[in-house]
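Q: I have 188 residues here and want to know how they pack in 3D. Can you give me a structure?
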Amino acid sequence: MIPFRTGARHDRRFRLCTRHRGGHPDDASLRRLGRFGTQPNPRHDLGMDHVHAILKAAEAACRSSGLKLNALQLQVLGWIAAEPCVRAYDLLGRLSGNGRRPSPPTIYRALDGLREHGFIHRIDAINGYVARDPGESQPPVFVICPRCKRLGRLDSQSEISAFDEMLRQSGFGAIRHVEIQATCKQCS
């Protein structure tokens, strides 16, 4: 396990974390549709600045809590931050493209560690992963179209706070995120 670093070594790891098969993703590749029909999140229009902000927030969280992420977890977090939504086997394909052939449990261990520490969200309806926003104070609301699997994100924190309070009063714990299935305009 290696801790986060700053300086030239951190910059080199950042470049490794965000490397795609054709080199670094540019803003155009971040805005394209995902492989399985997800629409880009407006937050991803920030391009590499958004990825860098997520990695910096993860670094700060690790420093404050004494956590350490290994090189694979850093690389996976960079890939997830650069896309609207990523599936585990897509990540496995990217790792295989680097010349080594890891097994599926390898990527799932990395994803479980990132999820356990709160750096990513798992979207069960499409079996994908989304990076947690650095300024996220309330659990997010994800909307998924059941037909085309398009993914959207709502930022209505007052409603989610009220819903969270209702759950607590009913004897349930705090929610991590909410998934709502609704047909999008293109499919209706």
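Q: Anything worth noting?
A: Strands lie at 86-87, 120-123, 128-131, 141-144, 151-154, 178-181. Helices lie at 8-17, 27-31, 48-65, 71-81, 88-96, 104-116, 157-169.
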